[in-house]
């Protein structure tokens, strides 16, 4: 009779351990690798669940997937609690649970709040690395909320940017971006949306807007735009005509047309599914990416569970190696 083996210990990683060990570099390569694995058919996301729970005005859900190439299986669970800020807590709350794909045994419980910000910034940064013009000098930031400074720091590492121009619906938050620019010694200017479009070579949108904030006519030829805020049905950050005109890339096509920035252009019949290329194809060399210096490229970063699992797996490996994880017998 086979002997029953003892269960390996489960790693617990707090938010502060994740912040300590997962930097922008680790997040960038984890996200780049998993996008490539998705495009190669080695990794897939399972259907997302997101529900209003009828308590505390909360939206709760889970994003799950399996990466056969990276052997990462798990789920990110959490959501949005709008009243948290009044209690001094983050509105977005999440935890990642990783399982051993060979046995199904619990492998790790990982704080997901910091990792969500760093993986979302990595996603836009990967798009800039692969799609923006090499000579991009001016970065445009639309949005100055919680995610925006993570986005700004990661983007500034991708090209030799000399200036940041920024606009936010609530201008009183723009100091957050100005402070990062001062720290990194990059010139900063608060501008209106049309000036931003006229100057920027790369634009990141990271807002919770439900109406277009940038119109097609305002954007410079050759601009790369990473639309990162639209992750829900009904949200919108840019003109659907801009989406239709741009060469479109995304993390996952199914999400892009249903809940990402491309949803409006898709439902209005301005684009079809085949107009959108998974960025993993560019990363893997299966698609050439930008075709010339005047093309507008647009990355629809909808946010997939596999990104969360990828950064959580990296965090777990480092934390176990460096004895920073709490190990619990389960
Ligand atoms: P936040 O609440 O901290 O900031 C919201 C931002 O949107 C602020 O800049 C605010 O001024 C702006 N804003 C609010 N109402 C607006 C309006 N009506 N018009 C224009 N701008 C408006 O949120 P955050 O954590 O910074 O997240 C920003 C967005 O990114 C959210 O929509 C969030 O759901 C989304 N998000 C996407 C991903 C992804 O993977 N794509 C991951 C995390 C968050």
What is the secondary structure topology, with strand pairs?
Elements: E1 10-13, H1 15-21, H2 24-39, E2 43-45, E3 49-52, E4 59-67, E5 72-80, E6 92-99, E7 106-111, H3 113-131, E8 138-142, H4 148-156, E9 163-167, H5 175-184, E10 187-190, H6 193-199, E11 202-205, E12 210-214, E13 224-227, E14 236-238, H7 240-245, E15 247-250, H8 253-258, H9 263-267, E16 276-278, H10 279-283, E17 297-300, H11 305-321, E18 326-328
Parallel strand pairs: 1-7, 8-9, 8-11, 9-10, 11-13, 12-14, 13-17, 15-16, 15-17
Antiparallel strand pairs: 1-18, 2-4, 3-4, 4-5, 5-6, 6-7
Helix pairs in contact: 2-3, 2-11, 3-4, 3-11
The structure holds nicotinamide-adenine-dinucleotide.
Provide a count of the helices: 11
The termini sit apart by 24 Å
| Category by helix and strand content | alpha/beta
The biggest sheet amounts to: 8 strands, mixed
Q: Using the 3D structure, state the CATH architecture of the largest domain.
A: 3-Layer(aba) Sandwich
What's the helical proportion of residues? Answer: 25-40%
How many structurally independent domains?
2
CATH superfamily of the largest domain: NAD(P)-binding Rossmann-like Domain
Number of strands: 18
């Amino acid at each position: 009779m086979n002997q029953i083996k003892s269960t390996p210990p489960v790693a617990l990683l707090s938010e502060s351990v994740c912040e300590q060990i997962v930097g922008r570099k680790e997040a960038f390569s984890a996200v780049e690798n998993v996008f490539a694995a998705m495009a190669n058919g080695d990794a897939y996301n399972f259907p997302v669940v997101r529900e209003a729970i009828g308590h505390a005005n909360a939206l709760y859900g889970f994003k799950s997937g399996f990466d056969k190439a990276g052997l990462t299986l798990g789920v990110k669970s959490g959501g949005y609690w709008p009243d948290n800020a009044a209690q001094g807590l983050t509105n977005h709350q999440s935890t990642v649970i990783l399982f051993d794909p060979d046995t199904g045994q619990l492998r790790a419980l990982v704080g997901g709040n910091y990792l969500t910000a760093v993986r979302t910034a990595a996603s836009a940064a990967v798009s800039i690395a692969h799609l923006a013009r090499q000579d991009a000098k001016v970065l445009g930031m639309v949005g100055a909320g919680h995610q925006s400074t993570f986005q700004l720091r990661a983007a500034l590492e991708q090209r030799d940017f000399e200036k940041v121009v920024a606009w936010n619906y609530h201008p009183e938050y723009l100091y957050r971006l100005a402070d990062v620019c001062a720290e990194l010694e990059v010139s900063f200017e608060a501008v209106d949306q049309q000036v931003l479009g006229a100057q920027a070579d790369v634009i990141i949108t990271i807002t919770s807007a439900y109406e277009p904030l940038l119109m097609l006519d305002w954007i410079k030829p050759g601009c790369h735009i990473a639309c990162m805020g639209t992750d829900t049905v009904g949200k919108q950050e840019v003109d659907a005509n801009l989406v239709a005109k741009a060469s479109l890339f995304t993390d996952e096509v199914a999400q892009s047309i249903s809940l990402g920035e491309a949803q409006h252009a898709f439902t209005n019949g301005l684009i079809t599914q085949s107009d959108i290329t998974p960025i993993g194809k560019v990363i893997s060399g299966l698609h050439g990416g930008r075709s010339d210096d005047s093309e507008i490229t647009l990355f629809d970063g909808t946010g997939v569970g596999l990104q969360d699992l990828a950064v959580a797996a990296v965090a777990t490996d480092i934390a176990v190696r460096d004895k920073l994880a709490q190990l619990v017998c389960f």
